[in-house]
Amino acid sequence: MSPAYTPHPEYDYPRDFQGYGEEGLNPKWPNNAKIAVSFVINYEEGGERSVMTGDGIAEQNLRENPLGGLRVNERNVSVESEYEYGSRAGFWRLFRLFNENKMKFTLYAVAQAVEENPSVVKRCVDVGHEIASHAYRWVDYHDFPVDKEKEYIKKCIESLKSLSGYAPKGWYYGRNSPHSRSLVPQVYQEMGEELIWTSDTYADDIPYWTDVNFEKDSASPKGQLMLPYSYDCNDFKFHVVGSGFRDPTGFYDHIKGAFDVLYEEGEKGMPKMMTIGLHCRIIGRPGRFAALKKFVEEIGKKEGVWVATRTEIAEAFRKEYPYRKGQLA
What we know:
Blueprint: E1 35-43, H1 77-100, E2 106-109, H2 111-115, H3 118-127, E3 130-133, H4 146-164, E4 170-171, H5 180-191, E5 197-198, E6 208-210, E7 224-226, H6 248-267, E8 272-279, H7 286-299, E9 305-307, H8 310-320
Parallel strand pairs: 1-2, 1-8, 1-9, 2-3, 4-5
Antiparallel strand pairs: 6-7
């Protein structure tokens, strides 16, 4: 029998089941937009597990072909090439789509991955897309010791800053540890860098503030703004057996349905934020890409749609609702 859970005073935080309640909150998006849309491209290719980086196995997650046994200390060139498709072809297909439609996206950049292909970051910076952090490597951080995780956070910030010219303003792990929510803003503070938002939450349709444990005795706490990410409007579900998307039409219907519901709520005076999570090696495949292209072109014709980077959304929210200790907004 497992031992009883004991909250850690430095890293634990309370759960919130109430949120903004029945009344909700109008985030007051710029120009009275009815909806804020955030496209996120997860760039992981080169930061995944590989025997060539000392992991002992090839990556097992989010791959086209789940068949075949796990081989230890042997390369799986099929998995490697599948990931390489994302960096070689899939990313650039997505990059062109958003540029052609004059829409900005946020790149969730795994630092070790973009170190292998620096032109991705350079071109994003050139045209005004955002570089955010998706950690130093695309691995599970749950069992990392605190000191090792802090080291990886620092390495990621330094790496992305050297490639883009600025420290990432936002952070998303995806496979975070119980310590991550406190450690990420702590390392930013220690390095003298600004962290505007984090996204390891799926708890709401608009941003919200949380208190930070290490600031509890501070005379001027900054809090942490949470920008909810999305698992449901996310192409990774093409690779989820049972509950995922069976075909591109299913993906399109789902994200279009979500958009329509949130847009209607915005028309009624309660705008929301919608996130669409994308992966270069998944939606970047031609057979799936057509569904995304159709959606992008359709919302581009709608009035009152604000497609923005996550930092632009965070800054707009912070302007209307600055941090107040103990309050969501």
